[in-house]
Amino acid sequence: MRSEICRSAARAARTLLSASTRQSSRAFSGRAAAAAAAVSLRGRATSLAAHSRVDPGNASRSWISGLLALPAAAYMLTEQEAHAAELERTFIAIKPDGVQRGLIAEIISRFERKGFKLVAIKIVVPSKDFAQKHYHDLKERPFFNGLCDFLSSGPVIAMVWEGEGVIKYGRKLIGATDPQKSEPGTIRGDLAVVVGRNIIHGSDGPETAKDEISLWFKPDELVSYTSNAEKWVYGSN
Ligand code: DAT
Ligand code: MG
Q1: Which residue in 14, 58, 101, 214 could disulfide with 51, CB within 3.0 to 4.6 Å?
Q2: What is the pLDDT of residues 154-175, one digit of tens each?
Q3: How far is Cα of residue 59 from the mean position of the Cα atoms in its chain?
Q4: Residue at 110 is within a domain
Q5: Does 83 qualify as catalytic in the annotation?
Q6: Quick check: is 61 in a domain?
Q7: Which of 75, 66, 67 lies closest to 29, judged by CA?
């Protein structure tokens, strides 16, 4: 019953918000309003629960006064959505050695357990030409040809992960390029031995991430969604 009320409250909040933004009548900043809404809604929820046990008449009055808090609640919802939209994305690939060694689940779970969100995934065998595009910045290096042969030698798991700081921290989870120099606890440190078979790729900066995501994925292969865990992964006190 109460979850039904909450759902209709959220729907009403969205309607109110779109009406108020159309009229450009925002009186508070989103953050201030969200904070106000949090305090206000906490109070309303308590009083609604208390009254509905003893006096249904009062409960309906509380319900009406609860409605007064809805415009602020609407800001809270959109703040969350805006936060999700701001989160950065990185391109991560499990190379043919990682796939053949049965490390797909192990690698995915390290990103997932950290709190990052998977927004795209597929298994592909890249062509040599595609591998050369992916590693274009290394074309002058002596290992370039062998590297591209290897990447195109078998199935690769291509992924996009999303989260605050995911580009830089994804690289930390992965570890140093040469597994001999990767710290224990990192993916390469724990699961690989030599640089030529270091099992995973991760974008090294915002520009590379953008380029690599658009090389490997069409825009409609990226799925934007709010994960259940998000409200527990993000927050400040
Ligand atoms: P990273 O994969 O850590 O971003 P990179 O971009 O410098 O490292 O190189 C891409 C890949 O090329 C790397 O994962 C493994 C291979 N590689 C790099 N240095 C190498 C070397 N000295 N000998 C052989 N392969 C190398
Ligand atoms: Mg690199």
Answers
A1: 58
A2: 999 999 999 999 999 999 999 9
A3: 39
A4: yes
A5: no
A6: no
A7: 75
Give the chain's domain count: 1
171 belongs to an annotated ligand binding site: yes
Q: Decide if 13 contacts 73 (C-beta within 8 A).
A: yes
Residue 8 lies in a domain: no
Is any atom of ligand 1 closer than 6 Å to the C-beta of 196?
yes
Region label for 216, one of left (φ > 0), alpha (ψ between -120 and 50) or beta (otherwise): alpha
Assess if residue 234 is contained within a domain. no
Determine the Cα angle at 107 with ends 102 and 109, to 5°.
Answer: 115
Q: What's the full length of the chain, in residues?
A: 237
Rounded to two decimals, the pTM is 0.71
Q: What is the pLDDT of residues 191-219, one digit of tens each?
A: 999 999 999 999 999 999 999 999 999 99
Which of 107, 177, 195 to mutate to test ligand 1, by most ligand atoms within 8 A of the CB atom? 177
Structural domain boundaries, residue 161 = 86-226
